[in-house]
Amino acid sequence: MQDPKKLTAKEEQALAALFQDARASEPHPSEALLTRVIADAAAAASVKTPSVETQRTPLWDRLGGVFLNLGGLPGASVMTASVMLGLVFGYAGPDDLLDLSSLGVETLSEFDTDMEVFDTADFSFDEGDLLQ
Amino acid sequence: MAFDTMPDTDDDTLIARFASGDQSAARALTMRLTPGVLSLARRMLKNEAEAEDVAQEAMLRLWKTAPGWEPGRAKASTWLYRVTSNLCMDRLRKKSFSNIDDVPEVADDTPSAASMMHSKDRANALNIALDSLPERQRTALHLRHFQELSNPEIAEILDTSVEAVESLLARAKRALADRLLTQQDKLGLV
Asked: Is residue A7 within 8 angstroms of chain B, CB to CB?
């Protein structure tokens, strides 16, 4: 398309004056339109955030819920014992740990590692022998 | 009603506040943005009732988009003008114009020389001349001289290139000048 003839400075100035008059005389939005737009905003906001107030659960009730999730008293007891034992082992040095043998716990070294060989062991048998 | 009740707060902040439930932010946005949206719709549709419908629909889309609005990603006013332009185009297409740029020529009912001396009448003359332009030229010129947007912003709204916008503006202003400035004495521009 052929380029239109460029406006002169005087033409630009004249058009600018006309645009200025037109901007100044533009009608404002009606009160009714503005009211509808604001009402739409309120409606859109109420869809996003329901007006029902949510009450905060008391701290004691929330702690009770956690307690139940752990398995009640037995579960909480086991967890507490585990935590305490873990703390003991974690902070105690090797020398401070109780001698396990004093607890009556047998160690491997106390076991007789010689296995008794069954004298009568006969690993060959006919089918049906066991039934006799 | 007073306009722009929070002039020191930018659009992004107001939108975030509205999304958080602040209705005063909605009021401020309404006062600030609705005039421009309505003005553009009025220019494109040349019908006040339809322009109000489009303006209300465009603002409703802003309210619904607000929770996911990303600050700084787009200028709220530019986004709104684009929505408005698209809504107007949809309405114009439904009216079955075969070519959206073929707007029927408005009859030349320029007022007499005496009445044209008043600025309101000069504005009237300009509006009549604008209405005679093809739709895209008219829209581009309106966004440039009524909403005072830059060429890149206009390009984004019209979904076209900056060069295309410059061409639209040049042709539109040439057509206006040819139509109006031959009557400069009547328009009191001399």
From this structure: yes
A47 → chain B, closest CA residue: B64
Q: What percent of chain B has pLDDT over 90?
A: 69
Residues 15-74 of B with CB under 8 A from A: 18-19, 21, 23, 26-27, 29-31, 34-35, 38-39, 52, 55-56, 59-60, 63-64, 66-67
Cα separation of B44 and A9, whole Å?
28
- Distance CA(B44)–CA(B83), nearest Å, equals 13
Query: What are the tokens at A119?
Result: 């004298």
DSSP state of B97: -
Check if the beta carbon of residue B13 is closer than 8 Å to that of residue B76.
no
Cβ separation A14–B184 shorter than 8 A:
yes
∠ CA B51-B52-B57, nearest 5°, is 100
Largest interatomic CA distance in chain A: 129
Residue A123 pLDDT: 55
ipTM: 0.83
Q: Using an 8 Å CB-CB cutoff, list chain A residues near B170.
A: 3-4, 6
Give yes or no for A44 touching B (CB within 8 A).
Answer: yes
Six-digit token string for A100 = 């396990």
pLDDT at A39: 97
Residue A15: per-residue pLDDT: 92
SS3 B10: coil
Nearest CA in chain A to B59: A37
Tell me how far apart the alpha carbons of residues A33 and A39 are, in angstroms, rounded to a whole number.
10
